[in-house]
Amino acid sequence: MPAQAxxxxxxxxEAIAGVEAQRKNIQVMVDTVFSFAEPGFQEVHxxxxxxxxxxxxxxxxxRGVAGIxxxxxxxxxxxxxxxxxxxxxxxxxxxxQTPGLPYLKPIVEGAPGHGEGHNTGMPLxxxxxxxxxxxxxxxHIPGRLMIWPGVAEELLATKAYYVREGLFKDVDVCxxxxxxxxxxxxxxxxxxxxxxxxxxxxxxxxxxxxxxPWDGHSALDxxxxxxxxxxxxxxxxxxxxxxxxxxTNGGGQPNVVPDKASVWYYFRERNFAAxxxxxxxxxEIAEAAAKATGTTVTRQTLGxxxxxxxxxxxxxxxxxxxxxxxxxxxSADDQAFTKAVQTINHRKVQPLPDKVGELSTxxxxxxxxxxxSDDIGDIMWTVPTITIRYPANIPNMIGHNAxxxxxxATPIAHKGAEAGAKALALTVLDxxxxxxxxxxxxxxxxxxxxxxxxxxxxxxxxxxPAIWLNAKVMKEYRPDMEKYYYDSSKYGSYLEQLxxxxxxxxxxxx
Length: 510
Prior knowledge:
The chain is α/β, with parallel strands linked by helices. The termini are far apart. Helix 2 runs antiparallel to helix 4, helix 2 crosses helix 11 and helix 6 crosses helix 7.
């Protein structure tokens, strides 16, 4: 039987009112983070902005945790359980998009953008944390909050380091939040792949590529043979694996035999042992490619993500609050914009949902044959954890794409983040006032989850967060992007600043 929540109706009403009182602040936070548009490890403005808000609201902020400049923790409270709340803050390269337009139009051509919607998650968490804190103070409810941002999630590059450095060693439970077009949560094996991110660098010898190529050893040949060999090997790998790569350095110019070349791989699989096997296969192929080309090869781990596994007692408690909050009240303009985005971009037409779906369970989920990853898995295998999906985007968008940014600074995103903040604040109060919920969550973690597998990350004590990634990109694009940062002191919304009258329902004539 699920633990019965002990938070009173009055306390929960106060929490709801506390989030609603922050409606304007939620909109400003969502729009501001969208406008910063910072990719992994370069979330300088985003991190400072959110940390400052928490600090001004009575949280003790520690910046630069786990050796990551844009990571922080914000803590408050005493006694009771420790509840960690987090969401991601980074975005994706090449997905710059003007919000509120149903057609592709970058704010800055080629620049990063929020092509997944991570700009809504931490504003949601901040609003929920402030509301829960105020209710706890007013009603003398003991307990501690620890707020943290997911840095460089799109690189799957930090949460394993958070765990390794002990950020969660005193945490009792964790609630993560991720943008979606639905409103729900899940428990059990969530069907996502874990992953290791590794860059292989081949080392050869330069020579004149035409005059005396026999004196050279091409590092690029090593990369190309590795990639070719890997693609042949795919036929004989389990159907659950996912692997993909980019050549990050292919040499300088054609008439110089490259003495250095690099390729960056993501190896994804369904459990810890399979991830390690896939990684070892990649290492073997890299070594073989080096021998075949007379080169040598080194490797560097750039990130890691464990498979995701949600906690049943926490999911049941959160789902009850999601149902109580319900879907946002979408306006006719919201639905019209949704249809325009879907129609113009040749996506399946489906309205914004008006009802909360089922709690996702191992029994009602389709069988997984592999897929994406999220490094919240590392925290899920450290403390009891769930992900709340909140409805701040349009159905049937393409993930990791500018289409997923079109609604992310519109009323759809603002309403979805507010609804998620309410559900999160209510769940925090349930945890703080229901000791059995915490004990049940820990029992499920030890007795059920850890019976299926055990945390076995590939990162070693020698591995360091890849904090240099995306630095060159932002050095190139930030000067132009800064011109479009949201100024909430002058404009009521980011759309207003950009001169967009919501909803825009047509694309310009060609």
